[in-house]
Design a protein that fits this description.
about 180 residues, alpha/beta, Diaminopimelate Epimerase, Chain A, domain 1, five-stranded mixed β-sheet, 6 helices, 5 strands, globular, Methanol dehydrogenase, TPM_dom
């Protein structure tokens, strides 16, 4: 990467602290809707353009952490062919995080079309929400209870400590371990 992100502003630090203290509003779990129920639109893509395996629209992941997460996601894709994206958003725009994440994943085309095997870890720090959206083709490998466990045990402890990048890295590591251990589709 050639562009360095600026140091966190007072407002960003304040947002992170509010996020860490207000996790009681957290919506957690997986999204495993059948493909027939999923809809996406070009307008979703305009809301947050896909910039890579890590799309940090909320600007909460510093470059070093982003590089480490990107490398882990690239290795996972080489090994399993499954695509995973970490995304952050400065706002859900009043939309439910599950719907927002699913629409965004579909608009971006995360996962292989014929396998429906994409995964999106969405972090919405201003709304204090996190979501793991799983393509229908991976629901046996990453069922709701596993995703909830990953959020509660691997991601939230870091978020509560005010370290959002570490929470994202821990979530990716745990998701990757589950996908690597799962039988190939």
């Amino acid at each position: 990467m050639t562009d360095a992100k600026p140091a966190a502003t007072h407002n960003q630090v304040s947002t992170i602290l509010k996020f860490a203290l207000g996790l009681s509003l957290l919506l957690a779990g997986c999204n495993t809707q059948p493909a027939a129920e999923r809809t996406g639109s070009a307008s979703t893509m305009a809301a947050i353009p896909l910039t890579g395996r890590v799309t940090d629209a909320a600007n909460i992941i510093p470059p070093g952490a982003e590089d480490a997460i990107t490398a882990r996601l690239a290795a996972l894709e080489r090994s399993t062919k499954h695509q995973m994206v970490v995304a952050t958003t400065p706002s859900l725009g009043g939309e439910d995080i599950s719907t927002f994440t699913t629409r965004l994943a579909n608009a971006w085309g995360v996962g292989r079309k014929d396998h429906n095997d994409g995964v999106v870890l969405m972090i919405a720090p201003n709304e204090r929400k996190v979501r793991i959206a799983v393509g229908y083709g991976l629901e046996k490998s990453l069922p709701d209870d596993v995703c909830l466990e990953i959020i509660q045990n691997d991601i939230l402890p870091h978020f509560k400590a005010g370290d959002l990048p570490a929470g994202a890295k821990a979530g990716v590591a745990s998701l990757a371990r589950h996908l690597m251990a799962a039988p190939s589709p």
